[in-house]
Specification:
homotrimer; 273 residues; UDP-N-acetylmuramoyl-L-alanine:D-glutamate ligase; nine-stranded mixed sheet; 52% helix
Amino acid sequence: MIATELLARTAESLARIRAARPLVHNITNYVVMNSTANVLLALGASPVMAHAVEEVEEMVGIAGALVLNIGTLSPAWIEAMHRAGKAARRAGIPTILDPVGAGATRLRTRTARELLAEVAPAVVRGNASEIMALVDAGARTRGVDSSRAGEDACAAALEIARAHGCVVAITGVVDHVTDGRGWLHVSNGHALMSRVTGTGCAATAVIGAFCAVERDPFAAAAGGLVVFGIAGALAAFGDPRPGTYATRLIDALDEISPEHVVTLGRVAEESPG
Amino acid sequence: MIATELLARTAESLARIRAARPLVHNITNYVVMNSTANVLLALGASPVMAHAVEEVEEMVGIAGALVLNIGTLSPAWIEAMHRAGKAARRAGIPTILDPVGAGATRLRTRTARELLAEVAPAVVRGNASEIMALVDAGARTRGVDSSRAGEDACAAALEIARAHGCVVAITGVVDHVTDGRGWLHVSNGHALMSRVTGTGCAATAVIGAFCAVERDPFAAAAGGLVVFGIAGALAAFGDPRPGTYATRLIDALDEISPEHVVTLGRVAEESPG
Amino acid sequence: MIATELLARTAESLARIRAARPLVHNITNYVVMNSTANVLLALGASPVMAHAVEEVEEMVGIAGALVLNIGTLSPAWIEAMHRAGKAARRAGIPTILDPVGAGATRLRTRTARELLAEVAPAVVRGNASEIMALVDAGARTRGVDSSRAGEDACAAALEIARAHGCVVAITGVVDHVTDGRGWLHVSNGHALMSRVTGTGCAATAVIGAFCAVERDPFAAAAGGLVVFGIAGALAAFGDPRPGTYATRLIDALDEISPEHVVTLGRVAEESPG
């Protein structure tokens, strides 16, 4: 895929989200439920949060995508994530996995790896530490907002993408997205995004909305990160402090247009070597 | 009740909320806990959230109203809702039921129906799909923000109101409120309300605050929707985007005065046929 | 400690938080998880929320402080709080206890007392009713935002501080902090803080961040309240309504500088009698 093609396709997907308002089913952490719902609504999608073992399989059946986020785990939620993920797999509904804090505790590392193996996500999005923790038990996350992305993380992403047939996105100053063969490097976004809780989780949910309207998860993941990154940069205009910035980020997700995507998107393509 | 009477009475209730700061006990969903608490505080009431089976009966005993919202269910929460609802019933404390997502999954539909039957709510508030799901197993909600209100929904509302001796409010572009005999149609509000998560849940909580100071649940439900709708319209002044709008909605709930209620409230009465 | 010394020391601690970005592990209530995370991020610290019995001991081991907040309890969370608190104690990591709603229900009163006895917190922060409920079973909280602080509450604070070897902070119009011998009275803050949900919980989390960089919990508790109170007063400039105020409070926590602490901090010292 050529970068300009990706931007045109992303612009179309954004328009499609607003026309179709796809339902995105989130089993996510308590911290970001409200902000994630508002991000999805501002973007144009329809969020639903449901975690009961008794209903997740039914709920995911009416959704266009499933987002699994392990930010505040407990055993019942883990079971619900497995059930929902497997139901999504059977129904051909794309799952997006956010391994929040993988590497910080064994519970998170183990849960993230088991979900990766069992639910066959279309896309995994994390920061560098979290992605490395999915392949290397020695990696340790410093909290949940570590963001260095180096060669180790990219090697881990390739390994995961190839082993599980999925797309892996490492977000940070530059977002690195691979399908196991090529790379798309997205350099939108803004440093202020790391000063607001839940922006990583929101990026994952935005990818979920794109997966609901775009069959190619590589294009959906990179495209979602382009859109979220442009919104993040637009929101930073005037150098607001973090409280004001959080509000403007929601505003920007509502304001961003397909034209913004084409004119402001910054993607570099790296073909399979 | 004549519409101008309703507005005068609502203005008085608003003043009473600010004077008495009634405690509103919420067993509500994770997504909206923070925003609901801020809505109630801005309005002038005192929110408390408590869901443990071990404490809900005691907590509701010191409250002026109980709000049950099934937006993110699990078995322990369902049990807590039943216990709190029955304790409220025994103590004569009004319960307001929000059947979020009824119709979307069997768990939600069944839970909403069982709560309706067991706790004898003073008011039920939902969108058209949710209200229809309380009487018709075939109805399906599209996510949690469906908002068409047609004849079917009004027929369902009448049926519920008569069968359970409660007030039913269907919110949407126009809010339709019935006590099983007459109707009050509230046409305040603004389209932006549907672009922020939790506004339906907030409307239910506002009705809860009004029920704490107004013995007639028909007046309390319609009055709460008038006040919330006026705040929603005031907040939309200047056409803000959704992030800014959410902030202004809280500001407007603080700013709205009894005079605003009388001069801006829009209610049409429909007498029993 | 002399008040001017406290301010100089607090200014240094604030700079240290921004340099070291200490990880603050919160086991807190659903209502304030998002706002607490944003408060800590704006201040300069790194928040993590984790509550699973399976991971809290491991998570607290990589944290600089542990915040236990009982605002929305259930049995599994109580067990997690005990486990995390004991692990913190063994590792010499300071625990800050927020007994939200102690006195309102037996579950909360009992849980707060048991945590106080078992986890040996460095600091306990509550409003007057909550602090009194820790020593007197007859006290009753009116919801979770009662704020009168009189002689009874100060007597209770002294009793708790001496019995448990901890610092106790009673927040209200003036914040009263004791180590069981002397007092520091902090008179920063603003009335608008009580119109936004979770400001008490946020104050506790801010104290947590200070405890992570300041070994003396008396200085950390008073210093944290000075910083949070100054931010609360700065945010009130221009008399915003509560929605706008909540946003500005986050902005102010980002803007507040060590110089602000020295020039705007208001602390009165009261030596041991």
